[in-house]
Write a structure and sequence with these properties.
This protein is α+β, with helices and mostly antiparallel strands. It has 17 helices and 15 strands.
């Protein structure tokens, strides 16, 4: 990190106004006029990945809005965050999306939620908002009253129009035949192959970040658990890690190992559900029922140990609610052996089914270059040759004390994404065993979070089942939340999915979509 900072100071010393260190996070307040050059330097020469970009209404503190550019320096296991100040009188900032393509949707989100204009952005259509949201109404500004219903508007919602002879559009959604949340998909098709897909989401936008403003850190925790049902634990854990970093609280190793066990159980549940879904979408009933059975077994042990299949109210800021593991170690190990044996047998049968393999091989290929450009995360990224995992890149809890492998695949198709999840299921089982073997017999379960200094901030990060999960918290007065920015893995991977379907036929979309298994709730915050 020091070399990176020195390199920036060497070239842009006049443009750096302030520097703040926070564990493995370095914040640089910089000149907004130089933001493109600074981001280009970090992205291309220092090899930092843009993992989040968000605004904060800090007019109460500085009289201006702040924009934060969060870069992950994965080889150095640290984060470099640039901060610029934007005035209310001139609510514009320079877009970096032509330099760093992953920035595009973040900048559109800032425009919708704060009314700050990304100058030079190639596509500034509404992103979060739909046609019924009034213009000039920005919900994440502090002076917006979240309890009042804004007036109804009726505006056009333009989609990208692909021109050409024989090109036609197929609209799918937002209401679907299955029991899933709403999302609109507009396919442009020439003959059978898809030549463009545009996804319109945020039909279930809940205003979570607005709800959290002024909320106590205790209530904020409960809301973090409800961002996305099947990632309850990892979202809550990211929240806890951020609060604990601000409070300078270190939990005991017993708590850390328990958190590892629950995080891996949640990963196991998620991946087994995905594998069942892939089998459903190729009409392979045996595989679907096998994986569903295995998922049910995992839910059984989770409920037996914690009393909640969704792993809710297990963690809390400062530790864990009670000693869930004590006396249940043997039951967990027995279930892990049972699941492992059945999983391995099922996978052998799966791989011997040539009709099944024919459907998943070379379908929905995500190219390595696209994955890099759009900062793909999780199993889709690993299936496309990006060997990144937050548990390795930024070790948290006690993952650095446990050996595990990151799957290596390069073709980026449904088959590779499926194999990544199979291998991660087996690694999760092994991690649970290792954690149970190494967990200390005793340790404090909870360290109280006392009065937090207002306007302190920190990142909380976890490797959710869907991938890299980044939460940023700034405290307010009296142990409240001033700003809570949530960036789940689905936000990164929805645009990636739209590229992976190109060249495939429309009937393969459900299969490709299921191999990504992205969350609507986790995206439509």
């Amino acid at each position: 990190m020091k070399k990176a900072i020195d390199r920036i100071r060497e070239n842009y010393s006049k443009d750096i106004y302030k520097s703040t260190e926070n564990f493995n996070e370095t914040y640089l307040e910089v000149n907004p006029e130089s933001i493109i050059e600074l981001c280009r330097l970090i992205h291309t020469e220092i090899k930092g990945s843009l993992v989040s970009l968000f605004a904060s209404d800090e007019r109460k503190l500085s009289g201006k809005f702040s924009i934060y550019y969060v870069f992950a320096l994965k080889e150095n296991h640290c984060f470099l965050i640039l901060k610029t100040l934007i005035s209310e009188e001139n609510p514009a900032f320079k877009s970096i999306s032509t330099e760093i393509h992953a920035a595009s949707l973040y900048e559109r989100e800032i425009k919708d939620m704060f009314g700050l204009i990304p100058q030079g952005h190639p596509d500034i259509r509404p992103f979060v908002f739909h046609g019924n949201w009034p213009e000039g109404c920005y919900p994440l500004r502090k002076d917006f009253d979240g309890k009042e219903k804004p007036p109804f508007a009726k505006n056009d919602e333009p989609f990208i129009k692909v021109q050409g002879e024989g090109v036609y559009e197929i609209p799918v959604g937002p209401v679907h035949a299955g029991i899933i949340e709403p999302g609109h998909f507009r396919f442009s098709v020439a003959g059978e192959p898809i030549i463009n897909l545009e996804a319109k989401l945020f039909y279930v936008h809940k205003g979570i970040e607005k709800l959290c403003e002024g909320m106590s850190i205790e209530k904020g925790f409960y809301l973090s658990e409800r961002i996305s049902g099947d990632e309850s634990f990892t979202n809550a854990l990211a929240y806890c890690l951020a609060i604990e970093k601000i409070a300078k609280v270190k939990v005991s190793d017993r708590v850390s190992f328990m958190r590892v066990i629950f995080a891996e159980l949640e990963r196991l549940v998620s991946h087994l559900g995905d594998l069942a879904g892939i089998c459903v979408d190729v009409a392979y009933g045996f595989g679907a029922f096998q994986f569903r059975m295995l998922r049910g077994w995992t839910y059984q042990i989770i409920e037996e140990v914690t009393g909640s299949r969704f792993l809710r109210s297990v963690s809390k800021p400062g530790g864990i609610r009670r000693d869930f593991i004590s006396g249940k170690e043997k039951n967990i190990l027995d279930f892990m052996l049972k699941i492992e044996n059945e999983l391995q047998d099922t996978v052998k049968i799966l791989k011997s089914n040539s009709l099944f393999i024919d459907r998943v091989e070379h379908t929905g290929i995500l190219k390595n270059t696209v994955a890099k450009d759009l900062n793909a995360v999780g199993p889709p990224a690993r299936a496309a040759g990006l060997k990144h995992d937050v548990r390795k890149d930024f070790p948290y809890l006690t993952y650095d004390q446990l050996e595990f492998k990151i799957p290596e695949h390069n073709n980026g198709d449904v088959n590779c994404r499926m194999h990544v999840k199979i291998e991660e299921c087996l690694e999760s089982i092994d991690l649970i065993r290792k954690a149970l073997d190494r967990i200390p017999a005793k340790g404090e379960l909870f360290t109280p979070i006392n009065t937090l200094e207002p306007y302190r901030f920190a990142l909380g990060y976890t490797e959710a089942p869907r991938g890299e999960n980044i939460h940023w918290i700034m405290t307010g007065e009296n142990n409240t939340l001033f700003r809570y920015k949530i960036r789940t893995p689905s936000f990164c991977n929805w645009p990636v999915l739209c590229h992976a379907v190109n060249g495939n036929i429309v009937p393969d979309f459900p299969l490709i979509n299921k191999s990504f298994n992205l969350s609507y709730a986790g995206n439509d915050l």
